[in-house]
Amino acid sequence: MENLKKSVAKKVIKGHSRRAFMSKLSAGALATACLPGIARGASKPLLIREFGKPAEPSEIQYKSVTAIAEMIREKEVSALEVVQTYIARIEDVNYQLNAVVMECFDRAIEEAKKADNEISKGNVLGKLHGVPLTIKDSFMTEGVVSTGGTIGKMNFVPEEDATVVARLRNAGGMMLGKTNTPEFTLIGGVLGVNSTNNILYGISKNPYDLNKTTSGSSGGAGAIVAAGGAAFDVGTDWGGSVRGPSCTNGIAGIKPTSVRLPRTGHIVDYGGLFDSWQQPGPMARYVKDLDLLTPIMAGPDFKDAAVVPMPWPDYQKVDISQLKVAFFPENGIADTDPDTIETVRKAAKWMDEVALDVTEDCPRELLVELGTIRRELIIGDGWQWLKRATERAGSKTYGASLRERLENQGAVISTAEYTKLLEMQDANRSRMLQWFSQYDVIICPTTSSPAGDINSGYNEESRYMDNPGESYTKPFNTCGWPGAVVRCGQSADGLPIGVQVVAQPWREDVALAVASYLESKSGGWKRPPI
Length: 530
Hints:
The chain is α+β, with helices and mostly antiparallel strands. The termini are far apart. The chain contains 19 helices and 14 strands.
């Protein structure tokens, strides 16, 4: 506990907490206060339905998953029309973005025709009946080339879908194609740190500025969803690979609690220790769609032995007025840019209008320790875990980033040192939980800056997967906590900035409720200029 106390830098927002605000208001002022819930009195729950939702454009390719599915069920539009609209949008923008790297348009059109036939008979295939989607190219997809960005898999055509893909298609989703990922989903490359780039397909570009990266490793997914080429995508998050691209491409995304979603069929299978950091997660333009999509994919498949059959809580029942919020606009590890800092502070002020308590608090020393442990575990066996992954894939020719790691292995630590690191990791996770027990939710940056330049270059931080900018996301992979991202602002030059909302284990409802409220204040996703 002594270390815990030392690790915490804590600051309550003076004069701005909801309790302080209410104590200063007279009865007459309360009657006229514009804040929902405060005007009614604190005894009534403050739910997200009290706040307005972002207006959805009239064009079908920019609507929410929820709206598209409803329109198809109500026969306002056919599944075929929707699928063809999205295919046309991909053909319009993908030559600039390089986001979709393998398409299956013909199959999607035939499936859409069958879906319309079923609707005509009064049959609904599922919650996603007729909704077009894309899938990150690290998932196995039946009948569609699935590479993981590595040459050894360039001709690999799976005979079955990954579990999460199968569940989405069984719910009526129409897969249009696969989206770009770095080789083995590992961030970095000759054309830029935090990029989505590989030796097979090249680099993906940001729809808000084609000279900027998409982040990674679900960068193709983030770009095509933001640009209206897919209603949603599914990425994977090992150190921020759903949340980072959601932030830099201005969309919503969530990394659920670890082991909520099966990883079966994720062709980049680290196994062992590192597998526990990995979690699939949906990426969409609207927060409400994350709530629709995640439970469809969640739950045991009796193949991934780690998955837990936890109930999915309803985010619309979360009483925002009772939440205790911690926020930190910078963590003292990453060099965080002023626009990002200001965006997080703005989000904290919005929460201060409605939440029970808002406190500026960052467990910096715990985060530093966690990052150090993670780095040493990754490189401690001399990259043998990565070498085994390349052997399983049959890859003998690599991109620059992967080659640099395998050819410069560094010192291998002893078994005793390695097992000590594992013990330290568990101890740190326990102290992180103790710190978090004071709060319901954390608001902080997702990345240390908006999208970077494509030609930012390879560096030592990239080599060790130790980019300080990812210090905002990686700790929550190690801890296993759920984290959602929603666009809350933009940089001076118009690049999206997403805020990360982290909740306690299994409390995705809290993360999504807060993300939805922030979306109502900021407007969330905005159409890119492409």
